[in-house]
Design goal:
Helix content is 82%, strand content 0%. The protein has helices at residues 2-6, 12-37, 41-61, 65-86, 91-112, 119-124, 132-161, 163-168, 173-212, 218-243, 247-265, 275-285. Helix 2 crosses helix 9 (173-212), helix 4 runs antiparallel to helix 5 (91-112) and helix 4 crosses helix 9 (173-212). The longest helix has 40 residues, at 173-212.
Length: 286
């Protein structure tokens, strides 16, 4: 058993990938918890695909592609907010439009600019290929987001559960929202290396929604989600190593299994542990 656990750790790229996924587990849990409580989980999917035009342009003009991705992701969020504020269009419709529009623009730019961006890596990630620079970038992003949440947690909490009330008492709701969107965008950019944009939303909301079924307080949800995200990532990497499976897909499948277990067996929220379930079964038997 000890050899089973230690053998993968003899490889440097495996150790790097595990450090990366633990950092991402914490980072995604913190930002994903706010998305879940606000019922804005689809926003993560939108931003994840909206970064593609920024990647293409940044790669073409020779600047850091992550800077281009951040600008593009932030722009998509601002456009969604602008459409929602200036019309009767619902936010989910605006997100759907921006999602498809930005992604199509990205594909078009890659073709027109003859960019050599590896779309397969962008879409599906390659956590086993992370470098020391990737680890440091993710570490600084994680620390920055955690400091932001720690400093402004009371304001973020109030805004998350009662945005109208926060505006009524004079909180700078526009700046708070901008800070949250920035944190989410940075999280997605950091996570693209691990699982790619196709699976990034699962990592962003999966551990957090699992924790949501197990605890009540937002800060407990963040902490438990971070633990579950880290465990899911490590288990997924072991599965990838021993079964020669795609690492990103393996991680997300573990996240999904954890959610299903909580969905079925959570002490208070589980389908199979509710008193009503046993009452219905008894009635059917009778």
């Amino acid at each position: 058993m000890l050899d089973f656990l230690l053998e993968p750790l003899s490889f440097g790229f495996i150790r790097n990938s595990m450090i990366m996924i633990i950092l991402l587990g914490v980072l995604c849990s913190v930002t994903g918890s706010f998305l879940i409580v606000q019922r804005m989980g689809f926003l993560g999917e939108v931003i994840a695909h909206a970064v593609l035009p920024g990647l293409a342009i940044a790669f073409y003009i020779g600047i850091d592609i992550f800077l281009g991705a951040f600008i593009s992701g932030m722009l998509s969020s601002l456009i969604i907010a602008w459409i929602q504020s200036q019309s009767r269009v619902k936010v989910d419709v605006a997100m759907s439009l921006v999602f498809s529009g930005f992604f199509a623009l990205g594909i078009l730019l890659i073709t027109l600019l003859q960019s050599r961006i590896d779309l397969h890596s962008f879409l599906f990630g390659d956590i086993l290929g992370v470098t020391g620079n990737d680890l440091w970038r993710t570490f600084f992003i994680t620390i920055s987001v955690l400091i932001f949440v720690k400093l402004f947690y009371p304001h973020l909490l109030f805004y998350t559960f009662n945005p109208l009330g926060a505006q009524a008492i004079g909180l700078p709701v526009q700046l708070i929202n901008l800070g949250l969107v920035s944190a989410i965008t940075l999280t997605i950019i950091a996570s693209m290396q691990a699982v790619g944009v196709v699976l990034v939303v699962s990592l962003l909301v999966g551990p957090s929604i699992t924790a949501y079924l197990l605890v009540k307080e937002l800060h407990h949800m963040m902490m438990l989600g971070g633990i579950l995200g880290g465990i899911s990532g490590v288990v997924g990497i072991y599965i990838s190593y021993y079964f020669n499976a795609p690492s990103g897909a393996a991680i997300v499948l573990v996240v999904t299994v954890m959610f299903l277990l909580a969905f079925l067996f959570s002490p208070k929220e589980g389908i199979l542990t509710r008193p009503q379930f046993f009452t219905k079964q008894n009635k059917l038997i009778k």
